[in-house]
Specification:
This protein has 273 residues and is mainly β. It has three helices and 18 strands. The longest helix has 13 residues. The chain is elongated, with a radius of gyration of 25 Å. It comes from Candidatus Paraburkholderia kirkii UZHbot1.
Length: 273
């Protein structure tokens, strides 16, 4: 990978439309000055590799797809979906070495688009304690097909989540290109240990004038998860780290639970051990 591509190592980049690569086919593209091949294996998954055969540097995109392998057009070296060479026609009895391997990239196919990531995985976001109290999750970056208000099409969106008090949280989202931000604050007012009323305040930093209808439509989107959230059990929030199956992407949620436990907060939660 070129040095210039290293700064993109954690980014998910569109390569092509799904329809650009038919079943059993292969096609070459250029992404960040790199030759990229997208080919479809036997389960119709889009595999994204460097368009380069390590034997003599031929473009794999000019080859053929056979028996769940892509075959180099020059000397017929065959590679499986993991990028490992399985067969060398000029010496069929030879078992190819582990070095005979094509460079593969992480890939996904969503929204009718084939995506790739030069890195093996997207860097984790950061959770820090705010100097005047609370928690903040930074470096949260995701692709959104609808982008943000006032912008046509999708965009990479930067998020910052903040929890200043146990029952007050805020979210700021901004397109990476620096277009207008959206700020949302959620303040909860408990009715009982398991019932809460919530106030949502939003501020749009853009030049558009937003009608009441637009704001109501936005609220409807937020409310879509309400039945699912209300179905969670137990009704009170478990603070015991072993009570739920946390993943790396849950770092902010785990930090929030530890933060509540550390301050001895005792409303609407289940104390840990």
């Amino acid at each position: 990978m070129r040095d210039e591509s290293l700064s993109l190592a954690g980014e998910w980049l569109p390569v092509c439309n799904s329809e650009d690569v038919p079943a059993g086919g292969a096609r070459g593209f250029i992404v960040a000055d790199e030759r990229i091949v997208v080919w479809r294996d036997s389960i119709d998954a889009a595999d994204v590799w460097r368009d380069y055969c390590p034997h003599r540097g031929a473009q794999l995109s000019l080859g053929t797809v056979m028996r769940n392998q892509i075959v180099c057009p020059y000397h017929g070296w065959s590679y499986d979906v993991e990028g490992q060479c399985l067969r060398i026609p000029s010496n069929p009895s030879l078992r190819p070495s582990k070095r005979a391997c094509a460079m593969t990239f992480a890939s996904e196919e969503k929204y009718g688009v084939v995506w790739m990531c030069f890195g093996t995985e997207v860097p984790d976001y950061e959770v820090v304690e705010i100097s005047d109290g609370g928690l903040e999750a930074r470096q949260c970056r995701y692709w959104q097909p609808a982008g943000i208000s006032g912008q046509d099409g999708g965009a990479m969106i930067d998020y910052v989540y903040r929890v200043k008090r146990p029952l007050i949280a805020s979210l700021t989202k901004m397109a990476s290109e620096g277009q207008g931000a959206l700020h949302i604050m959620l303040a909860a007012s408990p009715v009982t240990q398991t019932k809460t009323r919530a106030w949502l305040i939003s501020i749009h930093e853009d030049d558009a004038t937003h009608s009441d209808r637009e704001l109501y439509d936005f609220m409807e989107i937020l409310m879509q998860d309400t039945p699912i959230v209300e179905s969670q059990w137990p009704k009170c929030l478990p603070l015991d780290p072993d009570a739920e199956l946390h993943q790396r992407c849950d770092r902010m949620a785990v930090a929030y639970r530890k933060w509540l436990a550390g301050m001895g907060f005792g409303w609407g939660d289940v104390p840990g051990h």
